[in-house]
Specification:
The complex is a heterodimer of chains A (274) and B (314).
Chain A (H helix, E strand, L loop, with lengths): L13 H23 L31 H36 L3 H14 L3 H12 L3 H27 L3 H8 L4 H12 L1 H24 L11 H8 L9 H28 L1
Helix pairs in contact in A: 1-2, 1-10, 2-3, 2-5, 2-8, 2-10, 3-5, 4-5, 5-8, 6-7, 8-9, 8-10, 9-10
Chain B lengths: L1 H27 L4 H6 L5 H11 L5 H13 L13 H36 L4 H15 L2 H15 L15 H35 L2 H8 L4 H13 L1 H9 L1 H14 L5 H10 L3 H29 L2 H4 L2
Helix pairs in contact in B: 1-14, 5-6, 5-8, 5-13, 6-8, 7-8, 7-12, 8-10, 8-11, 8-12, 9-10, 11-14, 12-13, 13-14
The chains are: A mainly alpha (274), B mainly alpha (314).
């Protein structure tokens, strides 16, 4: 019997509605980007360099005269795409490893856990820096790095619930049938831990955005001239001390609005799940 | 005792795996080190000569074992790009980062504990909701975003703080503190939100326990119940939480030290990564990893000294 991830409908509070609205807004903007923004996000205009916010350029322009509003809107695409792709990798492989380590505890699982611990021992930002140096900065590198670095975290969470589930009577019953381990894991255990996986995916998505933006800000992620929030801050950060705040402030606000919304939604799903 | 021995051994095993990951990630995967330092236009002989000087023309296993052997003997190697022993770069950077971390903890602990206890006492009410939701929000915003926003508001907007964390040479304690306050605040906000939620969780468990009810029922004053029974139990796990977050602190330090131009270990590793200075990068990361394990084992020891119950579980 397949259990839906959300057995009880979410209680919709005003806060949750605002957060959902913000996430939907960024999702919409990232899909329709170029069609709805007032200017071409890549168009350089020397005459309009570093214009403060005005009626024509609501968020002002950057050092190359590019419209900040258009770049912020289109810039939602790279961060959402990278973090969604990375989360997908982390959740799928983390679930596979977690199911294995939880259902077949033993020598191999111990080795697996040790390797995972080595990965988890270091701050993700530092390990990502090593990986980006090794593979060169690009969106693909960032997706792979975050995806792989998050596998251990997901695997440990999944392993913990699988350990608990495999002691339940339905697993014992399936064993007595006898079902093959793969069938038990996929058809019996997996549906019962889907709630945990949904929560983990939402939480991971929030962190993936955190790391994606941070790597871009360090110049190690998406490369210019692609509009990207972290990269925009990286490019215009040197201008802040000259009082030019708008090319940095608006992308920062965009990142904050997206991560806060996603994590508050994750928190609500988590409490719902319990 | 056996437990700590086990922790120590497993820390060494993990560090060993880590050293292999870092070494193979930075030296082997990307290929020709000399070519990457000199660029595509350099001649074949120049690249070969640099590789010979750096020792990167030797077999992989030999390079790895000589690097690891050097590390174990306290020889950290020489920086490719800055031509100085790595130890001379790392020591002052570590000291600077330690000062910043100390300031962060001094500001963070009281704030997070008071906030968490308050939220736990108000649990379920609007006050609790307000505190926990803001803490949650603060935790998830990337440190560099917090840093930028603080910088824009308090440094450029209001002019209360300098934009750099490095005070002019020879400045007094108060002036240095003034320079470090804003960078420290980034971490206090980001990490503080997390610690606060952990404090709240621990205190809520203690508040709802049987021993707290008993303490109330035997007529103790609320203050006595709170300080002698609830907090002593509820804050115990906070020690473990803080020692487990040392890795997060290092990650945050990279970003904060870059934003506020502070010569710490985070910025050193960042610069090394950008300049492809693999020796500094590898060694810096291994040192950070070692500190992480030392702190987490120390946190465990302190935790079990404070809370005898955790000793029996092991």
């Amino acid at each position: 019997m397949l259990r839906l991830p959300l057995p009880v409908p979410l209680k919709i509070s005003p806060l949750l509605m605002i957060c959902g609205g913000i996430v939907l807004f960024w999702a919409f903007v990232s899909i329709f980007g170029e069609m709805i923004v007032p200017h071409n996000p890549l168009a350089i205009s020397v005459m309009e360099r570093l214009q403060p916010p005005s009626a024509k350029h609501i968020f002002g322009t950057d050092a190359l005269g590019r419209d900040v509003l258009s770049r912020v809107f289109v810039g939602s695409r790279s961060v959402l795409f990278i973090s969604l792709a990375a989360t997908t990798i982390a959740i799928s492989w983390g679930t596979i490893f977690g199911l294995y380590a939880g259902y077949f505890p033993g020598y191999l699982s111990d080795v697996l856990l040790r390797i995972f611990e080595a990965f988890m021992a270091l701050p993700v930002v530092l390990l990502s820096m090593v990986a980006v140096v090794a593979l060169g900065p690009s969106s693909i590198t960032v997706i792979l790095v975050i995806g792989i670095l998050f596998i251990p975290v997901v695997a440990k969470t999944v392993r913990a619930v699988v350990l608990g589930e495999s002691k339940r009577t339905y697993v014992a019953a399936a064993r007595l049938l006898p079902e093959r381990p793969l069938v038990i894991l996929v058809r019996e255990v997996l549906p019962n831990i889907s709630g945990t996986i949904v929560v983990e995916a939402t939480v991971r998505l929030g962190y993936a955005i955190f790391i994606t933006a941070t790597l871009s800000f360090l110049g190690l992620g998406v490369q210019p001239p692609t509009p990207d929030w972290g990269l925009m801050i990286y490019e215009s950060f040197g201008l802040v001390s000259a009082g030019i705040w708008w090319p940095v402030f608006f992308p920062a606000l965009a990142i904050a609005s997206l991560v806060i919304s996603i994590s508050l939604i994750a928190e609500r799903i988590f409490r719902n799940e319990r | 005792m056996y437990y700590y021995l086990y922790r120590l051994v497993s820390a060494f095993v993990t560090l060993f795996i880590l050293s292999a990951i870092v070494f193979f990630g930075t030296v082997i995967l990307p290929g020709d080190v000399g070519r990457r330092i000199l660029g595509g236009l350099a001649s074949e002989t120049a690249v070969a000569e640099l590789n010979r000087q750096l020792g990167t023309d030797r077999p992989v296993i030999e390079q790895y074992s000589s690097w690891l052997g050097g590390l174990l003997h306290g020889d950290l190697g020489t920086s490719f790009s800055m031509r100085v022993p790595v130890g001379e770069l790392l020591a002052p950077a570590l000291l600077n980062s330690a000062i910043l971390t100390l300031l962060i903890l001094v500001l963070l602990l009281p704030t997070a504990i008071v906030g968490g206890v308050l939220a736990a006492l108000l649990r379920g009410r609007p006050g609790d909701h307000l505190i926990t939701v803001s803490a949650m929000a603060a935790t998830t915003v990337p440190d560099f975003v917090i840093g930028i926003l603080l910088l824009l508001v308090f440094s450029l907007g209001l002019g209360w703080f300098p934009t750099s964390a490095t005070a002019p040479a020879g400045s007094g304690f108060l002036l240095q503190l003034h320079h470090l306050l804003l960078p420290a605040l980034c971490m206090v906000i980001g990490l503080g939100g997390y610690v606060l939620r952990m404090v709240r969780a621990g205190v809520v468990v203690a508040l709802e326990s049987d021993y707290t009810r008993t303490a109330f029922l035997k007529g103790l004053s609320p203050a006595a119940v709170l300080f002698r029974h609830v907090l002593r139990n509820g804050l115990m796990s906070t020690v473990a939480v803080i020692s487990s977050q040392i890795g997060y602190i290092f990650g945050g330090l990279v970003v904060i030290e870059v934003i506020f131009n502070y010569d710490g270990i985070g910025r050193l590793i960042y610069v090394a990564a950008n300049q492809k200075d693999f020796v500094v990068l590898q060694t810096g990361i291994i040192i950070v990893g070692s500190i992480y394990f030392m702190v987490s084992i120390l946190g465990d020891i302190v935790h079990s000294a404070l809370d005898p119950r955790t000793r029996f579980k092991r």
